[in-house]
Amino acid sequence: MNSEKIKLASVGLGWWGGMLADAAGRSGTCEIISGFARNLDTRKVFSEKYSCNSAESLDQILKDSSIDGLLVATPHSTHLDIISQAASAGKHIFVEKPLTLTCEDAREAIKITEKAGVVLQVGHHRRRCSANRKIKSFIDSGELGVLHQMQANLSLAGGLEPRPGWRNDPEESPAGSMCGLGVHMVDNLQFLAGPAKRVSAFSKKLLSKTNLDDVTSFIIEYESGPLGYIGTTFVVPKICETSAFGTGMNAYSDLEGTKLYITKAGDDKKEEIDLDPIDPLSEQLSDFASCIRGEKTIETGGPEGLEVVAVLQSVIESSRTGKAIEVSTFRD
Predict the structure, then answer these.
(1) What does the pLDDT look like over 181-193, one tens digit per residue?
(2) Closest CA to 23 of 301, 332, 288
(3) The pTM is what?
(4) Domain range spanning residue 270?
(5) pLDDT class for 259, splitting at 50, 70, 90?
(6) Do the domain assignments include residue 1?
(7) What pLDDT sits at residue 2?
(8) Max alpha carbon distance in the chain (Å)?
(9) What's the CA gap between 180 and 230, in Å, rounded?
(10) Domain count, the chain
(11) Residue 298, C-beta contacts closer than 8 angstroms, at least 6 positions apart
(12) In 3D, which of 105, 106, 108, 99 has the Cα closest to residue 72?
C-alpha cells in the first residue's frame, strides 16, 4: 500500500467542512493542503487551524497540480457545478450528501466524472457505523431470516429558531430536514435492502420558526420486498436509530450506530451485541484515498448517491401530491 498521503483541498469551510478536515487528519491517509470559501475571514481561520493554504478562488485550487482531490461541503445546489469543474481539472471529488437535489443533475455528475476518469464519492458515512455494518452481516448470512420491515429516524432539536443562510432555504433544503438528516437514513435502509420501489410521504410544519417543514415521515416499498419507515425532524431531542426486523431476528442500531441490540425468534428479551469501534468519518476518507490510488472500489459513489436522490425527489413529490410515487419516475 502506498504510504504517501493524498493531498486534498476543502471547498466549503463551515462546520461540516471542518468535520471532514478533522476526519481526514485522523485517517492518516489524507492531508488538507488548501481551502476555499467565499468569506475571507472563514478562509483565514481554516488555514490557521489546519496549517494549509488559503485559496482566493476555486479556480486557484483547480489549477494547483499538487492537489489530488476536493472535499466539497457547499450548498446542495452548487454540487454539480463544482463537480463538473473539478472533473475537468482532473481532480477527484468527495462530495457531501445529497449528491445533488435532482436525479437529472446526479446523472450528469456521474457522466462527467466517469468520462474524466476521476473518483466521485458521496458522503454517506452512517452505513459504516459498527451496528449498521453488523445488521447488514446478519441479513447477508441469513441469521436475520426473511427481512420484512425496517425503520430509521435521524432527528435533532436545532430547528425551533431560524437557521442561518442556505440551510433555512426550502429550495436548498426541501422536505424539512431531509437533506440535512433524512437522506442518511435513506442510504442506511438502501444499504440493508437495496433500491426503493415506491414512496408515500408526508412533510409539514408544526412548530418551527424557520422556513422549512419541521416533520417529515414516509414509507418505502423496496424492490427486494420489505417495507421501511423513515422519520426526520429538526425539533425533537436527538434520535439516531436504524432497525431491521426479520423472521429469525430483530436488530436495533442506536446511539449513532455504536450500540446494537437483538431479539431472536422465540425470545422476547433484548440482547446487547459487542461491537468493534469504528470512526465512520475517517474510514470513508481512508477509502477515498484508497479509491484514488486504485486500491479499492467506491462504496458510496455516483450510483448509490443517485438512488438516494431518487428517493428524496419521490418524498418531495409524494408530500406535495398526497400520492404514492414510483421511484423509477425520477431514477430512470
Answers:
(1) 999 999 999 999 9
(2) 288
(3) 0.95
(4) 134-278+309-331
(5) very high
(6) no
(7) 57
(8) 63
(9) 14
(10) 2
(11) 119, 120, 121, 287, 291
(12) 99
